[in-house]
Amino acid sequence: MVYRCSICNTVYPSDTYAYRCECGGLFDVEYEHSTDLSVSESWSLWRYRSVLPPFPDELVDAISMGEGATPLMALGATVKGKGEYYMPTLSFKDRGAVMLALHMASIGVKRCAIDSSGNGATAVAAYSARAGIACDVFVPAHTSEKKVAQIEAYGAKVHLIEGPREASGAAVKAFVEEHGVYYASHIYNPLFFEGTKTYLFEIREQMGGNLPDILLIPVGNGTLLTGVALALGEMAISSPPLLVAVQASACAPLAAAFNERGASHWTTTLAEGIAIAEPARMHLLLSLMREFNGIFVEVNESEIRQAHEELAHRGVFIELTSAANWAGYVKLIRENPQLKEKTAVLPLCGAGLKSLGSFS
Question: What does the pLDDT read at residue 36?
Fold first, then answer.
């Protein structure tokens, strides 16, 4: 397994502590795996072991917590939600975090650091604890208290950083350089996307070998979108679903760039998990959306609150960022009524308990 720069093609060994190429390019990961997706008897994302990084069985057994295999539930006649909040740390980020923890353990990492709006850091903190790796977490000072408490419960050291989400990223990079620790970034490290791609493998199996007509994906730094694109490539789908990327209108840099609007001053949003004003892989994400003929849907704060209430009244209690996905679907159908009869799947990314107290 090696890392390759996406710009200059320089190859780095996978045990490097560098998180990007000297030229400034970000890494892709390359490893040998089967082109024929076969499934094992495991009821977890390891069911798709044939297309996942080649970690030793004993390491997987020690660190995995059975992540994946989340249910599909009806939210309407033609739309389903995938219950990613059933994961061990209550969000979809466990799919990628287990890959990072396994990799760190395999190359002997003793201490790592991560920046996140909450869920990514929570997942990495939990799986680092499983692997016996000390973890420093940098999150915005306005991060939900419930998420901070969960991170601390895993034994990680939390650094609350004032300012926008990007300030946490700057702080962790300075920390990594100063202390020489491993940067366990769910944004920069491409192994994370090897985990999130299993989201789509599961959907296809759960739908009897088919994919829905529409896939709604929340996009901040694009960890789920990148994984879905990887999966579509490995599936060699000739007619992929319509990809609908959901952003909060208060912080929608990707939607603005995709639709060729001018730069804007982005503000805070209830959907803190996708409040990313400067995505590190912005050019890649825009390229993927164009490659798959995707579209963007932007939802405002009122629509997010209403979506959260609607789902809660249907027995589905999710965090506000996840409610943006349902708001995105409602808006998509309202503006494109011809899509109402099309099958659709959206992720229910995080549990409502994570942002309890933020709903009023």
Answer: 75
Look at strands 157-161 and 134-140 and give their pairing: parallel
| Domain extents in the chain | 72-90+191-355
Centroid of chain to Cα 177: 25
Stated pTM of the model: 0.95
Give the single-character DSSP code of 283: H
Residue type (1 letter), 232: L
Q: Quote the CA–CA distance of 303 and 311 in Å, as a whole number.
A: 12
The set of residues, in sequence order, having a beta carbon less than 8 Å from that of 340 and lying 6+ positions away, is 78, 333
Q: Where are the alpha helices (DSSP H) in the chain?
A: 57-63, 94-106, 119-131, 145-153, 165-179, 191-196, 198-206, 223-235, 253-258, 282-291, 301-312, 320-335
CATH architecture observed for domain 72-90+191-355:
3-Layer(aba) Sandwich (3.40)
Condensed to tens digits (0 to 9), the pLDDT of residues 240-265 reads 999 999 999 999 999 999 998 877 78
